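User:
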Amino acid sequence: MEKLSGIQVAMPNGIGLLDVPVRWRRPEPENETMAYPVIVVHKPRISRAKEREHRGVTTYNYLQEGRPMPGENDLWRYFGDRPIPYNLDYQIQVLCRLQAHETELAGKLARGDRIPERGGYLHIEALDVVVSLDLIGGPEFRDVLDSEGKRLFTTNYLIRVYSEMTPYDVQRYEAVQTISGTIRDFDDQSTAVQPVLSEWQTTAEDL
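Assistant: Predicted structure:
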C-alpha cells in the first residue's frame, strides 16, 4: 500500500536511517524472512454501506476503466445507476524489535498524509479520485513473544476506506444539441389553435 510506503526510522546506533517495508499478510510472510521494523497490512473486510446508499441515475465524472474520458469541449458524459457504496476495513499492524522504533512510527503514522485521527484520505491513482480514510480503531500498543521467544512491540490500527462499485455498465449519452417544436396556449380558447410561438428552435449554446 503506497499510502504507508517510504517511511524511515533512525538506526539503533543513531547514525543513518532504516527503511520500513510494507507487506501484505496474504500471502503470509514467513517469519524467517521478516525484517523489523515492518508494517503488515491484513486483507480487508468488505461490507455494504447501506447508510450511504442512494437510488437513481447519476453522472460518472471519473475515469471508466478501458474507456476514453470526454474532453473539455465535449458534450457527452457517462450515465448509469448510482453505485453501491462499500466499506473496506483494513487492519494495519506495525512490528518492531525496539520500543524507540514503536514510538517513532506511531508519531509518523499519525500525520495527515498517513493515518490521522481525522481528515484521512486515499488517492486512487488508477481512477484519479480521492476517497475518505477513517481511523476507526487504535492505535493499540502491545508487546508479545515470537516463535523464538524474542520480544516484539506491536501497534495495531483499524482503518476504513470508503469505496463504491456498480454491477451495471455505465452508458455514454450525448448532450441534447437541438430542441425544436411548437408551443400553444390551450387555456385561452380564442388562441387555442394559434401558436403562441411559431416554429422555434434553440441550440445547446442557447441553454
